[in-house]
Design a protein that fits this description.
Chain lengths: 557, 557
């Protein structure tokens, strides 16, 4: 077969482009069979191949019993590959087989840090072949194949673009952080976000389970935490729910990293007697809002150790997020105005330096982590680096910074100390704004979230070794104003911009203007699959607009 | 029966309130059986009455064949009155009848301007009685009854609070403006917004059907308008769709006021040959984006007349919105740089004063409106008042202003000229911001949308006669960034704040802090009814969170 040598920019639907309203291209200049996030290398062929639903098959080779691949085949064949609510053509003369060839054995656990996601995909008119080291790579390749499929309005047929693709992620950590404490999110809604994450080749769900407001996580050993701390008995993830989400994520090639934020943001842990200090307002009155751990109580460390042992049995990911942010917000109320704490500090020779008390707490926490029976690499928010002395085994999670430059400076400083970094500051998607904020400056700060397509976590002056320490990024959608009703539309496709930044080669994804026709096709494809992917580029339309009851249409296939 | 003399503030769940995070009350201090928008007068009784689904009935008296009331009874009995996804208790010993007594005949048409919406509602343990002049008042009363119903978690029963209510709206025009040109909205999604509008006692759908970007409206007489101007053949409201929406709105006591924006914002009318001027960029090149009518072409006026005759046959509302905004945005390109227009202006003695050409157009438009076979009262955006000479029969629609004070000044100026006013400037809900923008100042301008609970359209220095000219307000959700995926959660409950401002007595609704427990109950009630009402007061929860498949649960009733 001849090498396929069409240039990348032909990806964009060829047409005489002309200006339209809102200073942009006409709204129907979207790509056809464009891939998001952009692959490492993609060369399109000149031909398209018509696909007939009753003549297409996925051949899993020797992996016919692998649940990850069986689930993949079911999703793509029955839901995602022919998403548009039209009749799927049948009856073509020849079968079309997608051969999936995976080198490694079918894994029983989720992907771990550094698991290969590389794949090779060759789509010709005769067949398609996905080759990958791991099932995770196969998942990524299958999504890419499905994105080469498009509905041809003229012939009323599904077609696939021929192409040769070599693809692998730029960063190993590409995630979404959800916050189930400020508002509860149902298992169903979380699973929908996992679906969309997989379609964007994201691989980490950072689950900020618990915060000041509520404790929806169920500990089997310490049920008083959720019975007291959850909003209500309906606002709880049962042990089964958690296992269900972890397994669902696994089937989509997504790791689940839980966060238990310590020692601040802990008001909802009040079910554990003695866990929190008393806190006082400026008049010396109890605030009723204790939000900081009592480090004097030795039982608390035994409790944390026991709690975390259970967490390691529940969540298999080798990373464990332990928070550590914004302790200083509560220090005055809960430690400085607390006479018992003050006495304890004096006895321990800390004087009135509360940072020493923070360090005291964290040193004990590091020891607990080190002594876990099942080993974990801890992640901490950047305050551990800024104010304290992180254990050298830690990963630092950057969340501050008012400009991209300031954020890059933070990344530089942490990596200069040889600590690995995950970046979220550029991508606080909870901070909504009016406009195309994924690409445009809309006022406010970088952290308050605009131009996130343009934040590149290795864009700092540093050595190659430093840049190797940048593990990736996590887009955060904090839960103050987000629940089941609005998380999906608010998150997507804004998080898709982050997904491309973290997966694709930087040099090929420099301009949002070049990206939007592919992003628009992505939006419409996902809308057709039944997900609420909102408009983010001013007026436009999709060939088929979102329909609540699309799933009913689909189920008729 | 003794008069019920419990004070209004008992409406709020009585409990020792205590501070919580985000500087507010604890998230479960919501009202129980609170009514939104707050009625003119409400006095709660001391007792609650348990309701059993199989023992409750609605007696329509002599109106048993009235479609509005039959639809109402069906909605409330089968969907909205017992919304929570729990088993409805059955088997109580005594029947509970809601008697609906309407004085006027069942209307065949929609409500018109000034139709009475007043109702009296008495809910006792033995029965409930709704008395109203019109079916529209009965609809409002029935919604209020349904809001007195709550699910009692302790007894696991539905109960209704006893109360006596006298209620009527403060303003006759209380609306939502949707924009189906920038993004298409499906009939289903529009109907869902009409449902929620009715639950907020809103009574006007201002349908901005057509704009520069697309022409989804179907004219039977001029099909070239939509065949050329719609985004695609799927992005069209058929004649049947329009009639369906109008009738659906009618069944919910909602008028539909269509807008056909002239003479600017007209690019999508290009299907009508000769309708638009040629427009030129600064180099004298054609822009390909004509967005202004050609007033030289006399045929255009004949066309507009014929088009609007059909509109009056399609939309029965006595008001007709004809736009008139932002003409100046296109004047340089389309009139000043256009040599033919310049020549025409000189011939007509207008020199180079394009305002005279605007006036020329509008005078002809006023004449067309006057000569319509079915009479219509025209509404124009405020530029007609600011720049031109509105016909004295016009209503002026205020949409500008950077502060509440500036908006009040506009209202003052227009009413001082004895012209009626509708206000939208305070409520541009498309301008999203991070935070509780319905009540808090979040930067930007008033028009860019914060503190909209606090905008009161009669808060200007003026005579009583002037204040009588304030017809009400319309919350606008322009379509640049809104489609089927996100309109519902983005609109509600932010628009509910507007609904209360426009319905309820000003003196009883002065403080958002007092309103939020009722607003929170409203949100949760509507979430339980299956609508995407997003959080808007920082962390909180509902007894039952939004569930996509709630309608399935409901259908099992």
């Amino acid at each position: 077969m001849q090498p396929l040598i069409l240039l990348l920019h032909l990806l964009i639907f060829v047409s005489i482009s002309h200006a339209w309203f809102y200073g942009r291209d006409a709204p129907d200049r979207w790509s056809v069979g464009g891939v998001w996030p952009l692959p490492h290398k993609i060369v399109y062929g000149s031909k398209n191949k018509t696909l007939y639903h009753d003549k297409i098959g996925i051949d899993l080779g020797g992996k016919k019993n692998c649940d990850v691949l069986l689930n993949m085949a079911d999703n793509y064949m029955n839901k995602w590959m022919f998403p548009f609510p039209v009749e799927v053509p049948t009856g073509g003369s020849d079968d079309y087989i997608i051969t999936v060839s995976v080198k490694e054995d079918c894994p029983t656990g989720p992907p771990i840090h550094g698991s290969s996601e590389e794949y090779f995909l060759r789509v010709s008119v005769g067949e398609a072949v996905i080759t990958a080291q791991t099932v995770w790579g196969a998942l990524r390749g299958m999504e890419t194949f499905s994105q080469l499929v498009f509905y041809d309005e003229k012939s009323k047929e599904y077609k696939v673009r021929t192409a040769e693709i070599v693809d692998r992620p730029r960063f190993p950590v590409r995630g979404i952080m959800i916050d189930t404490s400020r508002h509860f999110l149902s298992v169903k809604v979380i699973k929908r976000q996992l679906d969309i994450m997989a379609m964007n080749k994201l691989n980490v769900l950072h689950w900020h389970l618990v915060d000041s407001e509520s404790f929806p996580y169920t500990s089997a050993r310490f049920p008083e935490l959720h019975t007291v701390g959850a909003y209500s008995p309906r606002h709880v993830y049962s042990r089964k729910d958690v296992a269900d989400i972890i397994n669902y994520a696994r089937l989509h090639g997504i790791r689940v990293i839980p966060e238990f934020d310590l020692p601040g943001h802990t008001s909802a842990w009040r079910g554990k007697k003695g866990f929190l200090t008393e806190c006082f307002d400026e008049h010396g009155e109890l605030t009723n809002l204790p939000n900081l751990i009592d480090p004097m109580n030795e039982n608390n460390f035994a409790f944390i150790a026991e709690f975390l042992e259970e967490v390691t049995q529940t969540f298999s990911d080798p990373f464990l997020h332990l928070g550590g942010d914004e302790v200083s917000d509560y220090i005055v109320e809960c430690w400085e105005r607390n006479q018992k704490i003050q006495k304890f500090m004096r006895e321990k020779g800390m004087g009135n330096n509360t940072v020493l008390l923070e360090n005291y707490f964290f040193e004990k926490l590091f020891k607990i982590v080190k002594e876990l029976k099942i080993k974990r690499k801890p992640i901490f928010w950047q305050e551990l680096f800024d104010n304290n002395n992180p254990d050298p085994n830690s990963i630092i999670h950057i969340w501050k910074g008012n400009s991209h430059e300031e954020i890059y400076e933070y990344i530089h400083n942490v990596t200069a100390q040889n600590l690995p970094v995950i970046v979220s500051s550029c991508w606080y998607l909870n901070y909504i704004k009016y406009g195309a904020d994924w690409r445009d400056e809309i006022g406010g700060t970088a952290k308050s979230n605009s131009r996130y397509y343009y934040c590149d976590p290795t864009n700092f002056n540093g050595t190659d070794a430093q840049k190797q320490l940048v593990l990736g990024g996590i887009a955060a959608i904090w839960g103050e104003l987000v629940d089941n009703t609005n998380i999906e539309a608010r998150l997507w496709p804004r998080a898709s911009a982050v997904a491309e930044r973290l997966w694709s080669p930087a040099e090929k994804t420099q301009r949002a203007e070049d990206a939007w026709p592919r992003m628009h096709e992505l939006r419409c494809r996902l809308v057709s699959r039944g997900y609420r992917i909102q408009p983010n580029n001013n007026p436009d339309y999709c060939p088929f607009e979102f329909d609540e009851d699309l799933k009913n249409v689909r189920n008729e296939f």
